[in-house]
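Holo prediction. Input below; ligand is 2-(butylsulfanyl)adenosine.
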Amino acid sequence: MDKQQAEKRAAELREQINYHNYRYYVLDDPVISDAEYDRMLAELQEIESAYPELLTPDSPTQRIGAPPKDELGTVTRRLPMMSLQSAFDEEAVRNFVENCIEGAGEEIEFVAEPKLDGLAVELVYANGVLTIASTRGDGINGEDVTENVRTINSVPLRLLDNEIDIPPLVEVRGEVYMRLSEFDKLNQRRRGEEEPAFANPRNAAAGSLRQLDSKITAQRPLAFFAYDTGTVAGREFATHWELLQTLPEWGFVVNEHIRLCEDVGDILEYHAEMEEKREGLDYEIDGIVLKVNQLPAREMLGVRSRNPRWALAYKFPPRQETTRVVDIEASVGRLGAVTPIAIVEPTQIGGVTVRNLSLHNQDEVDRHDVRIGDTVIIERAGDVIPHLVKVIEEKRPPGSRAYKLPKNCPVCGSETVRPEGDVVVRCPNFNCPAQIEGRLEHFAARGAMDIEGMGEKLARQFVREGLVKRLPELYQLTKEQLLQLEGFADISAENLLAAIGGSRQTTLARLLYGLSIPHVGEHVADVLASAFGTIEAVRGASAEVLEEVNEIGPEIAQSVVGFFANEENARTVDELLEAGVTIAVPEKKGDTLAGLTFVFTGTLENYTREGAQHAVEELGARAASSVTNKTDYVVAGEATGSKYVKARDLGITILTEKQFTELLERSNKG
Ligand code: IVH
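Structure of the complex:
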């Protein structure tokens, strides 16, 4: 291909990819397979690396981030970004509506929108191409976050022209935010990598957007809702509603919960409805925003200090509540961790009744100095889990004492231990009933032995009724025993026994995970199983040998060695094997793929998921369940989801089914 052809082809590809990106991220309605999308992107990348001078700022290849900077520059805006007057009650809303009607000089309506809890940015499009993106800053001067914003998939790099002419200058304003589901995943990943978790999605979005290294931003799941414009040259709108209809035509996502309201009644109804819907949304909102719809009326109303008179934020009551700590209990987990739990007077927060909240550990109790009888403020933030915000010391009853976790396990009475440098206090008794209950529940869980129908409730029943004191006893349960328990009849007992029996056929990874070895989660269990193949090999491995495995550090290695060195644990494993627990050993055909990690996503036409995993394992590779930066290949079938997006964001090689088959064929020969 000569340069002229390359230029033409690159332009074609960019247009197509930008369009399909829009179908995928904005309309949520893709019209091509992910594999096809991928091929186009790869072809474009190839052209751009052959002819770097052909690279353009609106190229979809630019979403992966640019070289890091020393500091974020400043952008001075044409029109200031204003802030909103807040209202907290009906009366303030009525006043606002009246004032607007009085000052408007014409019939008006209001547009009601969710008040999104992220951070405001302005995007400047010159001749349709995204050229500058900035944060709000002081309204006039913001931070230059152009490179970072380019990595956000729901921000168009070039405006779509849907048969209409694009104005030469378009400034679009809106909110950068993080979905709650993505926020939870991000925090989980960070905890796993021992990085501090973000306090809430807003902080996570802000921290991600203001990165000096846009490659980091590219790995953060940010999204964008458009709700306003700055300057739009050569295009007049009569109403805000008309603008909100036009933004999607240019390729932006406008929130779906916008509504035209005629009067206060409509507005109050909308507010109440949104407050209810709030719980089901995958992003945080903290109220509604009311805007006069008619733009000429806005001119009439004008601005007072930085707030437009034509807009109002009507906030929801905060999700914080005040309650009283009636007791503090110590709860014992499956690994023996003794956790202080505050039992509070039942309190409604955002539609959920909170009865207790974890205080995490003694250090946290000390930090807040929370005591029985204290009045406290609690909050439900981004994560659904409620937490303590602060103690109101003024309301503390006289004679209260600082809370200390008991020196003995509250369940079995063993003296607790607090290993050096650890914040967690533990019950050292492996046979403590609380630990057994927790381990039994975990053993049966989906990622472990996967015993259908067996959860927390049954685990508790089995332990409390004395039927299961140690894991292997699960396999000795009889129908007669089950029938004596509350809630069991002939069929349910038989079903459960069948499920327990069926769990005997398992994999090494499931068994290792199910054993509740400290620091061995699903992923580490996968790694150990692939590296060692048999339970005997894992048991026999020294800390040094374990540490030779990629991803296994000293802490995990020590934990594994310590676990199997314990006699009770060793006996448990022996008895499980005697009870018929059988590990399917993947037969090895070779090691041509040794050291590589594969993740499968979507449905493959010619393989089952297990079959495909088995095929790479036979050749020495590891099949993992989630995409991390250690993943080498992601094999994408039809209807892929978040794994695919993540792989793309991380720049991991994505194989189509055909490419995967070819790779297997080559590897089987070699
Ligand atoms: S319009 C004058 N619409 O609220 C118009 N703002 O205090 C101001 N916000 O920093 C912006 N959702 O981050 C507008 N649907 C919405 C909004 C919204 C959230 C935030 C925005 C801004 C703050 C204004």
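Residues 82-84, 113, 115-116, 120, 136, 175, 227-228, 289, 308, 311 surround 2-(butylsulfanyl)adenosine (CB under 6 Å). That is the main takeaway for now.
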